[in-house]
Amino acid sequence: MSLTTVLSRQNATQDTQSISSSATKALGWAALVGFAILVVLAFAWVPADTRITDQGDVVGQFDAVRLMFVHVPSAILAYTGFGITFLASLGYLRWRTDWWDIMAASAAEIGVIFGVLTLVTGSIWGRPTWQTWWEWGDVRLVTTLVMVLVFIGYLAVRRIPANAAVKARRSVVIALVGAANIVIVNRSVDWWENRTLHQQSTLLARKIRDETLFTLTFAFVVGATLFGWLLLHRFRVGYLERQITEQEVQKAIAERQAESAAHDTGSLTQASNPTGQIQPQSKTSP
Amino acid sequence: MSEVATDEGAEEISGSLDLSPRAPRVARSGWRRWAPALVVALVMVMIGFVLWRALADATLVFREVDDAVERRLELGDDRFRMIGSPVSGSIQEIHLTDGRPAVAFAVVIDDVVADVVHTGGVSDQFQPEVPVVIDGRWVQSNEFGNIAQDGWYFASDRMLVKHDNDYRVNNTERINEAEERGQYQ
Q1: A284 FRET partner, CA 20 to 30 A, in A22, B8, B90, B99?
Q2: Which residue in the set A52, A145, A263 is minimally distant from B178, CB to CB?
Q3: CA B39, CA A149: separation in Å to the nearest integer?
Q4: Which residues of A touch B125 (CB under 8 A)?
């Protein structure tokens, strides 16, 4: 069943004012249960990061490594959100329909949530591992912050009062510029290796033990489920907002037309009945 | 003639339809109308601030030990950041001549070694073979350096740890033994 169909059905039962369906409820529960399982896996199953060097020194991140299961999926999902915004903005440029515009805005909101979560968990992880909450000269940290700020700006621009089409066009420009930064953020650890404390990709280098890899993959699945749940709901809210705005406009037009018609009828009546006596009215179209 | 007709027509229309602009039914308050624009302005200021701070610190590129040693004379008293892996067995607690506690160790990259005397806080993750970024300057003295034996040491007061991307397990038996010895919890 397509989302459009879901929304049509939703629209038909708007009196309930619900934005959920049995499918999204199942998705929400799956995310919740998955998160509970993830907590157990991350804290009870995955061992702390510990290695012993050839000289016999015990090294590693120890328990701090467990933050990986929130931080890494959050970062990937932030990229995903902003990536969807980029693609939906291109879609809007091509097809100029509300669907693409609402999708772009919804994904940007979810992307910002995960982007902020990435910055917060990264900072918490950085304190015990790097010995610092934040480094201004660090390219990975700064470009990530700029990426999130650009999309916060994107959302703010959408709230500036304007015609819907004008808003959408402004948003598209910011989304396209902001999306370029996604590549810079992602590649910064390789391009400027000596300007960041952030490690290079573990997954691409395949330097990860089995239990950690399994749990990280599971965390991605849980995160993606949560992302999907949030996106569907936010999209539906956005769609209903458009419907309400459209209905208000139609209502206002109808009221003006009714007023005009009433005025016309009154003038006609007065013209044909200067004595002011009540005459039967002719039927007028709205 | 036509002008008269137009005026008459306009009069007729204006007489039958109220064309004056109407105030919106639910007018936005001033604050709600301007808040998004203020947020946009704030975001732009924040982005500007972030870029300014980032560019101000951009000179703090991490010089690798071999590069820092090679450019030692050129660097002079300049403050910079150096990255290298602490040499296993080189880490020792010392006291400076003024009695302040410090940590002396050697860092290495590509077989080029430099002595370090660090007076700032030490990270919990400060471990042999895990790269550290130390912030300081070169000092020519034989007072503390004893590994490199080149008459120089790097006096640092800030230490950051650059952890690698390796999360593989190795030496499982030795980890278990270390755990039994209480070497880590």
Answers
A1: B8
A2: A52
A3: 11
A4: 61, 64, 128-131
Confidence of residue A32 (pLDDT cuts 50, 70, 90): very high
Q: Which of A46, A61, A109, A210 to mutate to test the interface with B (most CBs of B within 10 A)?
A: A61
Class of A22-253 in CATH: mainly alpha
Q: Which residue has the tokens 């990259």?
A: B109
CB distance A131–B127 less than 8 Å? no
On whether the CB atoms of residues A64 and A44 are closer than 8 A, the answer is: no
Q: Which residues of A touch B32 (CB under 8 A)?
A: none
Of A87, A77, A83, the residue nearest A115 (C-alpha): A77
With an 8 Å Cβ cutoff, are A207 and B166 in contact? yes
Evaluate whether A99 touches A77 at the Cβ level (below 8 Å): no
Interface list for B 102-161 with A (CB within 8 A): 121, 123-125, 127-130, 133, 159-161
Bridge pairing between strands B80-86 and B132-140: antiparallel
Whole-number percent of chain A with pLDDT over 90: 49
Strands (E), chain A: 49-52, 58-62
The yes-or-no verdict on residue A213 having pLDDT over 80 is yes
Q: What region does A131 belong to: left with phi over 0, alpha with psi -120 to 50, or beta?
A: left
Do residue A130 and residue B178 have CB atoms under 8 angstroms apart? no
Q: What share of chain B is helix, strand, coil (3-state, %, to 5)?
A: 35, 25, 40
**DSSP state, B181?**
T
pTM: 0.79
Q: Give yes or no for B41 touching A (CB within 8 A).
A: no
In eight-state DSSP terms, residue A160 is: S
Nearest by CB to residue A130, choosing from B18, B57, B161, is B161
8 A C-beta contact, residue B36 and residue A160: yes
Contacts of B109 (CB under 8 A, 6+ apart): B64, B65, B66, B83, B84, B85
Query: CA–CA separation, B176 vs B183, rounded Å?
Result: 10
Handedness of CA B6, B7, B13, B17 (dihedral sign): positive
Residue B155 is inside which H or E element, if any? strand B152-161
CA angle (A270 as vertex; A264, A272 as ends), nearest 5: 100
Alpha-carbon distance of B37 to A168, in angstroms, equals 16
Give the CB-side neighbour count of residue A88, counting CA atoms within 13 A. Answer: 23
Chain A partners of B170 at a C-beta cutoff of 8 Å? 51-52
* Residue from B163, B6, B41, B166 nearest A132 by CA: B163
Domain boundaries, chain A: 22-253
Q: How far is A209 from chain B (nearest CA, A)?
A: 4
What is this model's ipTM?
A: 0.70
